[in-house]
Amino acid sequence: MTTQSVTNGQHGLSNGCYGFLNGFDGSANGYNGLTNGRNGCNHNSETNNSTLNGGHSAGLSKGFANGTGPHVLRMANGLGFKSIGSRERRALSSPVSPPADLPFIQPVSAKLKPIIKTDLANGQPSRAAEDSTEPKTSSPTDSTSTLIADSVPMESAFMVSAPGKVIVFGEHAVVHGKAAIAASVSLRSYLLVSKRSKPDGTITLKFPDINFDHSWNIDDLPWDLFSRPDKKKHYHDVVTELDPELVAAIEPHTADVSPHIKSEKERKIHQSSAGAFLYMFLMLGDPDWTFRGTHFTLRSTIPIGAGLGSSATIAVCLATALLRRSDALAGPRPNMPSNEARIQLERINSWAYVYEMFIHGNPSGVDNTVATQGKALHFRRPDYKKRPEVEPIWSFPKLPLLLVNTKVEKSTKNLVSKVKERKEELPEVVEPILDAIGMITDISQKFLEPTSCNKQPMGSQGLRRELLAINDHLMVSLKASEAQLQRAEELEMVEPIAEASKNILDAYINVSKTSDCDLLSEESRCRLLGELMSTNHCLLKALGVSHERLERVRELVDKRGIGWTKLTGAGGGGCSITLLKPGVSRETLNDLETELEKEGYQRFESTLGGDGVGVLDPVILGKPGENDHGAHIDLNQFLSAKGNEGIERLVGVRGKEGERMGWKFWRIDSGI
Ligand SMILES: Nc1ncnc2c1ncn2[C@@H]1O[C@H](COP(=O)(O)OP(=O)(O)OP(=O)(O)O)[C@@H](O)[C@H]1O
Ligand SMILES: C[C@@](O)(CCO)CC(=O)[O-]
Predict the structure, then answer these.
(1) Catalytic annotation, residues
(2) pLDDT value of position 474
(3) Pfam families under this entry (predicted)?
């Protein structure tokens, strides 16, 4: 069964499964043993897999044969010599155990051997060796070495990548302390951290996707204020709010960015990106040699402002890069103990949240948490002064999801503010809606992970009770005072609340007809999840965050009776997800896709639940057997990779043929 969970990931892509988003992609996550472990305590894995995968098994045999857990680990190990350096000194002073394994040299690392000096005391490469300013020499007869020599400006380069996400349940409500469920997608951002060979005292941020490129003189930045004892934050601190004095001190350094940009809106985006970066850099970085001449260059395959968490991926990549450069991260490395990986991930996530606060104001942190941890998770932040409550969903099922981009760009910040204003204006109507969304999320979690060891699968009676409780909240909302209800009518909130109530009652009737045993069948679970998704969408519409283009997707899907649609992310445009009914014919889907395309929608193919943040170090081409395998990728190559395909081919965490060599991830397991 291990192999099956490994190969499942490719399923939808390999059999041309209509661009579905697929559930856990075991090939890259090394979770196969873990899945078996938890299955062992309740169900056997055979039962579990057949329950989860049901009728979607056509592509199982075409999985990522290359990507099986042990194989990947072996390959990663071979490239891993740089990751366990004394750059981890600071990280290891935190309560984590020392590196458990020493790297061994594979053909690729042999080519780079001359630049590695071993610290004899601990058998690991020394910091001096890692960041050596010596030219990287090698045999002149070796074609790879020529490429390495050409790429001297890339001295001590590394790359970080983080995945986008879909929110399956609970967006917006999560900002107000309710639960959300989110999963990572295979679209990712890639950040190259490179250093000029002759450091010149500047630091450079390049975001070519948004036409942003700016350098700062490091000595001009407000280090004094940021290092004042009452202001100073350390890499292990949890920062839950921005300091207005520090934000103000950054403003003069972002005021003059992008003088060539005419659009005020675009300039604001550039200024907030620059400000968010500087805030983190001044907190985590230092004015000495470490960062001088460093370039942070980001490219992404995630559409911007489409609800797929693009900003959070940038936050995670930059936080990881800054923590790593300033010696505050250990790993990642293969076989890192789960507890140690968790500490590193929490550290990254805390700082990514700082970046997100700068961009969004008051985010819940769900986006950066998924971009950091990957997989799928249940998230709640009842207290903004504390870390969020995060519960991984270990066996997120293979949902046949269709992901559609309306291509209407929106601003998460504005939409979050809109909901907040609505809540302040109409608390009697809005608060019960938010409660209902939170309850929908909690019920869904039980159905997304019904075989979990520590959760009782929900019986039909309990479920009906919960559905009625949701409906009660909707009734409370509709029984608001006359004045509030009238205003709610004006804002077109009442009809979607009534539609949500109808959906919940339909779900109630369907559950009444189902025995406890049948409730766990794929068909019943799919229908229930679908009805809950539709209900969630109606409530988001009532909150004012849908868009006519999103409603049109619902209309096109509903007309064919083939699934349940909801917006995902902040709404106001962006993307929708449709959970397709089991057994929908290829013909019907083709027909839907043609119509969507005609109306200017974009459909995405992606898998759900892949790895979170990862590091590629050294940044070399990774295809064994290719001529230039082992050659360094330089900044120009990265910048000139064409489109998403070009980026994926050059540095992608996963190419079409399987997992790319070299990427390493901090992986946590269920502990079972
Ligand atoms: N490729 C990119 N390069 C640089 N900046 C980006 C990139 N993608 C996103 N951003 C930043 O993120 C902002 C968009 O974030 P926003 O939260 O509105 O959308 P999202 O993160 O895609 O959606 P959601 O928050 O609903 O998931 C942009 O304005 C920009 O600041
Ligand atoms: C709309 C929202 O709930 C999700 C955006 O992806 C905002 C947030 O959680 O911060």
Answers:
(1) 367
(2) 98
(3) GHMP_kinases_C, GHMP_kinases_N
**Is the C-beta atom of 637 inside 6 A of ligand 1?**
no
| Cβ of 303 below 6 Å from ligand 2 | no
CA-wise closest residue to 450 among 439, 463, 468: 463
pLDDT, tens digit, 9 for 90 and up, residues 328-382: 998 798 888 999 999 999 999 999 999 999 998 889 999 999 999 999 999 999 9
Q: b/e string for 142-177 if b means 16 or more Cβ within 10 A?
A: eebbebbeebebbbbbbbbbbbbbbbbbbbbbbbbe
- CATH number, position 301: 3.30.230.10
Q: Which of 184-198, 348-362, 517-531 has the highest mean pLDDT?
A: 348-362
d(CA 200, CA 220): 13
Ligand 1 pocket: which of 278, 304, 359, 418 to mutate (most atoms within 8 A of CB): 304
Is pLDDT larger for residue 183 or for residue 604? 183
Residue with the smallest CA separation from ligand 2 atom 9 is 364
Cα gap 398→6, rounded to integer Å:
13
> How much helix, strand and coil, in percent to the nearest 5, is found in the chain?
50, 15, 35
Residue 30 burial by Cβ neighbours in a 10 Å radius (0-12, 13-18, 19+): buried
**E-assigned strands of 593-641?**
602-604, 606-607, 614-616
How many Å is the maximal CA-CA distance in the chain? Answer: 85
- Per residue in 410-442, pLDDT tens? 889 999 999 999 999 999 999 999 999 999 999
Q: From the CA of 317, how far away is ligand 1's center (Å)?
A: 13
Six token digits for residue 374: 């990957």
Q: Interhelix angle for 482-490 vs 494-512, to 10°?
A: 100
Nearest CA to ligand 1 atom 2: 209
CA of 181, nearest ligand number: 2
Distance CA 657, CA 642 (A): 19
| pLDDT in the model for residue 671 | 57
Our count of domains for the chain comes to 1
Q: Quote the ligand 1 centre to 272 CA distance (angstroms).
A: 11
Query: What is the whole-number distance in angstroms between the Cα of residue 123 and the centre of ligand 2?
Result: 45
Residues ≥6 apart with Cβ < 8 Å to 524 = 510, 514, 518
Ligand 1 mean position, distance from CA 184 (Å): 16
Whole-number pLDDT of residue 629 = 61
Among candidates 268, 271, 291, 284, which has minimal Cα distance to 319?
Answer: 284
Tell me if 371 CB under 6 Å of ligand 2: no
Cβ of residue 416 lying under 6 Å from some atom of ligand 2: yes
Q: What percent of the chain has pLDDT over 70?
A: 73
Ligand 1 neighbour 269 (Cβ under 6 A): yes
In a domain, 200, yes or no: yes
Whether residue 340 lies inside any domain: the answer is yes
Ligand 2 atom nearest to CA at 570 = 1
Q: Is residue 31 part of a domain?
A: no
Provide the residue range defining the domain that includes 653.
150-385+612-665
Contact between 294 and 195 under an 8 Å Cβ cutoff? The reply is yes
